[in-house]
Task: inverse folding
């Protein structure tokens, strides 16, 4: 008998991944592939308000032509969650760069198995329940899992 309900893998996306997914001239960059996987419900992609604000600001400053693509990707692919509170963050001091700690805590709070970012060193030493990984490495893991189904 087949299971009636499966939960999707939860992936938390950092601002640099959203920026790259919105601004990349390539149609199949790792960041775009992850967002497309979320759009077609192969995984559940989440991010927090802090990431949306940062990405929007960076695109406005560096590549405003990509803003429409960013807004479309957000509406189709992401679930935006609230930023963690200071009470949530405080017990995790030292687990990541102070600027990025709220993102790590939000990923943990939302039970995300993966935090996808190009800046993996900003999330060290990290939290044991959240694997911090670069977009290309995440895609390789998905590919390996799919090859295992053959």
Result:
């Amino acid at each position: 008998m087949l299971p009636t309900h499966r939960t999707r893998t939860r992936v938390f996306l950092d601002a640099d991944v959203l920026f790259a997914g919105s601004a990349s001239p390539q149609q199949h960059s790792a960041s775009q592939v992850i967002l497309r996987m979320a759009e077609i419900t192969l995984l559940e992609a989440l991010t927090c308000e802090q990431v949306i604000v940062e990405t929007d600001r960076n695109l406005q400053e560096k590549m405003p032509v990509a803003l429409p693509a960013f807004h479309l990707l957000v509406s189709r692919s992401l679930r935006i969650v609230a930023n963690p509170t200071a009470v949530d963050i405080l017990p995790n001091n030292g687990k990541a760069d102070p600027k990025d700690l709220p993102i790590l805590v939000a990923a943990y709070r939302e039970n995300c198995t993966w935090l996808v970012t190009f800046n993996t060193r900003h999330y060290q030493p990290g939290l044991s329940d959240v694997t911090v990984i670069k977009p290309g490495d995440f895609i390789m893991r998905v590919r390996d899992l799919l090859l295992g189904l053959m």
About this structure: The first helix runs from residue 15 to 23. The helical segments are 15-23, 30-39, 49-62, 67-77, 86-89, 101-109, 135-148. The beta strands are 9-13, 43-48, 78-81, 114-116, 131-133.
